[in-house]
Records
---
Amino acid sequence: NYGIVLDAGSSHTALYIYAWPAEKDNNTGRVEQTHSCKVKGKGISSYASQPWKAGESLTLCMQEAEQKVPNKRHHETPLYLGATAGMRLLNMENSSASDKVFQAVEKALQKFPFSYQGARILSGQEEGAFGWVTVNYLDDLCSCCVLTSMRFLSPSQGLETTGALDLGGASTQISFVSDNYDGSESPSNSVTFRLYGNDYNLYTHSFLCYGKDQVLRLALAQQTQVNFHPCFHPGYTEIKNYSVLYDSPCVSGRKPQGAPENFTLRGNGSFGQCQEIVKSVFNFTSCKYSQCSFNGVFQPLLQGPFGAFSAYYFVMNFLNLTDTSIPLDTVKDKLARYCATPWDEIKLHTGVKLSYLAEYCFSGTYILTLLTEGYNFTSESYSNIKFIKKVSRSYATLFLLHTPQMPHDLSSFPVDH
Ligand SMILES: Nc1ncnc2c1ncn2[C@@H]1O[C@H](COP(=O)(O)OP(=O)(O)OP(=O)(O)O)[C@@H](O)[C@H]1O
């Protein structure tokens, strides 16, 4: 059997093909990702003003899928598209534009011989829950997948589940199981589902606008009138366009009256000052629950190990900071030294896009601030986080998208026994 998922994020879209044995020769039930294809260009939400291009952008990867899935399986192979925060933002800002993008995508996908199951925006809850399921099935936190799946089979034997921390371009998710959370306090953060006969009650929250690209906009928007921005390296200079910067519902309300067309961004590379700016994007003033993370959002006590993926991994891996056994203060010192490094030296790094190179100081600062100030990881609990490379959220999406309502019964979730 085969299944195809398009994961349409704010910054990219990727196609994944999964394969698993047919039931009659189901000796392992093991699902494998057999192929992936990165769709050229940005996420489909970036085609708001030319929706037909969103459809066209998918064509090359869809043609690859046609080649990879055996012809005789085409008609029975389900095809899903799940869009995340970029489309959530576009839908908020201009729902007719997001409808047009979906229509174009739908038209393009229906031309292929697969069993098209629809394209839709995932809720933040779903995105968080899919990330959690994926981390707990496909993670590399334990040495083999069999052990990982056993964790699902027998949590009563004391095997703890792993929390999921996902940092995207437009939103960020935190999901974990906590003994202190039964869903009664802030029920909107609760996702319950059944997996292999075990009931899970997950705490999950998705913070829209707290992906790294949107927080960078917020951090830039605060500093357009000052001479130097501490989140960029000394010697870094870039002409920024006001309209482009404020073209997002996450920042649009903050555009200064009578702003000129451009401003000049100049860096001075100060981790401490950058952290102050980043802290100011969180609101800690009110909490109507027993405890909160930020912006008045309930969060129970952190519990167990966590897997941090997507931009958490890209950034911390580039900065050589994935080792969480290093004391947090040392991690901050290293980042402070990195931020203070002149741009002339940083830009010599080869094989990485210049735009990413320019942003790692900001992104590293945001990640440490989000984890410690936002989610309340301490010097001790920081070491419970593992930055992990390979998490394909779409894996879980494939099996869950066709069940439109939570709670899901995941009893048919394929796994190796
Ligand atoms: N090598 C890299 N170095 C730094 N940042 C990267 C790298 N590769 C991707 N990114 C950035 O990491 C962020 C997260 O990427 P990811 O693909 O997980 O997000 P997304 O799915 O597009 O976002 P969302 O889930 O919010 O819609 C994006 O801002 C992306 O541009």
---
Amino acid sequence: MKGVLLVNLGSPESPTAKDVKPYLDEFLMDERVIDAPKWLRTFLVKGIILQTRPKKSAKAYAKIWWDEGSPLIVLSERFANKVQQHTKMPVALGMRYGKMTIKNALQELKDKGVDEVLLVPLYPHYAMSSFETVVVKVLEEQQQYFPEMGVTTLPAFYKNADYIQALSESIIDGLKDFEYDHILFSYHGIPERHIRKSDPTRFHCKIDGSCCKINSVAHNTCYRHQVYDTTEMVKAYLGLPEEQVSSSFQSRLAGDPWLKPYTDFEFVRLAKEGKKRLAVITPAFVSDCLETLEEIAMEGKEQFMEAGGEDYKHIPCMNDNEAWVKVMAKWVNDWEATGELAVTPST
Ligand SMILES: C=CC1=C(C)c2cc3[nH]c(cc4nc(cc5[nH]c(cc1n2)c(C)c5CCC(=O)O)C(CCC(=O)O)=C4C)c(C)c3C=C
Ligand SMILES: [Fe+2]
Ligand SMILES: [Fe+2]
């Protein structure tokens, strides 16, 4: 029988330093997140980052935590439950890090008689630190514990027409009653080095954008290319003028150069340029989470207003909205019926 495995990033058990620490430990010790040699990663993570960051992150998590738990987990569960209502196949939800493990989700599917799994990483764009690490982990667990199961992965859906439509409609919805001068598409950042590492040609990606209009197989795994494609397609769908839209990258860690422009610098630049009413959309995330609710909706607003902005709105992620649920249900049901994937690297 066929079944569906949805995988998102995961959250700590609670917004306390005690619970944030093991979560960050697992997350940042992932060789696809901090891709230094193991001895150096161990030194950086356990010797430096984990000494101070859990306390700081716990404070941020406490600001956005819900009675039911982490917004990312709760919203992903609501989404999975709604997708389940639209398909006969069993649907399970796992997280790459934390207690809601991928192994348990695969076991849940197995217990329901599933031996053919459609894996859907809940990331619209391919990055080694998000999409790729999910795929690798699922295949590791499958090979070790569920060798009889087959796994097919839905590719990154950043430019799929149904996804673009659902995202664009959610923006229209979010902009009701909000007068804006500018819409900022703020994507989670990654180190520039990761772009080069993920380029199978080893020479295509130049990071500066000069490569992105030249067709290449590199784009299938180029996060930068993919996020700019999402912006362009939404811009076209909504008929937005060039000068009213821009893209930027948030949530960087200290150290290496990360993709630019940086969202916090953009808040200041846009306010100074007279874009006084700013709408911010965060399409790298399908579910609201720490990075959208705290960094963008709270901190971002403060930064923009301090720089001279007058009005600010974070447009929520698609979360469990009906249109997005229906898109996902269509993709998984098409796969069940035909064995074909609605999303391919070229769609
Ligand atoms: C869009 C997908 C994501 C990519 C790509 C990504 C890369 C990436 N992240 C870190 C470090 C941290 N990210 C943190 C939180 C976080 N990251 C994503 C998604 C992507 N990360 C999400 C959805 C969340 C929120 C989780 C939640 O519980 O709500 C954190 C933890 C919080 C903090 O301490 O700031 C860290 C750390 C790196 C280093 C990286 C690429 C190399
Ligand atoms: Fe992150
Ligand atoms: Fe490029």
